[in-house]
Each structure stands twice: as structure tokens, then as C-alpha cells.
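FAQ

Q: What does a record look like?
A: Structure on top, sequence underneath. For example:
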């Protein structure tokens, strides 16, 4: 419309900084602003991430030899796989999701 004035130029990207602070309980990386107010910068604690170690994730099994090969190969097939890895990850992200509920 003739009276429309775009506000798009006023938008600024949200800069969260680096995700480089690890939780002292579970060692997961966080942004500094995710820490609990009571925790110090030196002894960072982000309770929602691990609830002070009450949440425990199982280690992932080693990938198959074929998949390891694709990740380490330097030939055309290995390069193609690594170049398209994000697309593969997106495709298979929720195809094998499972969890065990512990009360």
C-alpha cells in the first residue's frame, strides 16, 4: 500500500555471544546468561540442563564401520557424505527417538 512503511530495517540480529561456558555439574556448554543467578562465573551452574546430575544420558554406541569409513575417507564418496551431512542429520533427526522414564 502507499502508506506502508517497512520496519524491517529497524530489526537487529540477536547476538547471544559464544556458547562457551560449561556447567560445573554436567559439563554441557551454555551461554553465560543461562546460568543461575546464585552461581559464579568460575563455578557455573545451569540447573535446568541437568538438575544437578539427576538427569543422566546414556552414551551413544559407536557408529558402524561403514559410517566411520564415510567420516574418515578423503575420496569423492567421503567428501560427498561430509558435504551433505547436515541434510542427512535433518532427515534422520527424529526417526529413532526413544527414552526411558524413571520415577
Amino acid at each position: 500500500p502507499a502508506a506502508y512503511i517497512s520496519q524491517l530495517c529497524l530489526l537487529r540480529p540477536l547476538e547471544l555471544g559464544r556458547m562457551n561456558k560449561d556447567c560445573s555439574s554436567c559439563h554441557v556448554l551454555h551461554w553465560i546468561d543461562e546460568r543461575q543467578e546464585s552461581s559464579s562465573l568460575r563455578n557455573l551452574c545451569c540447573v535446568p540442563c541437568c538438575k544437578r546430575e539427576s538427569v543422566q544420558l546414556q552414551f551413544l554406541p559407536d557408529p558402524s564401520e561403514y559410517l566411520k569409513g564415510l567420516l574418515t575417507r578423503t575420496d569423492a564418496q567421503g567428501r560427498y557424505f561430509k558435504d551433505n551431512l547436515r541434510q542427512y542429520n535433518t532427515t534422520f533427526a527424529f526417526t529413532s527417538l526413544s527414552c526411558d522414564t524413571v520415577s
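Q: Is there anything notable about this one?
A: The chain is about 25% helix and 5% strand.
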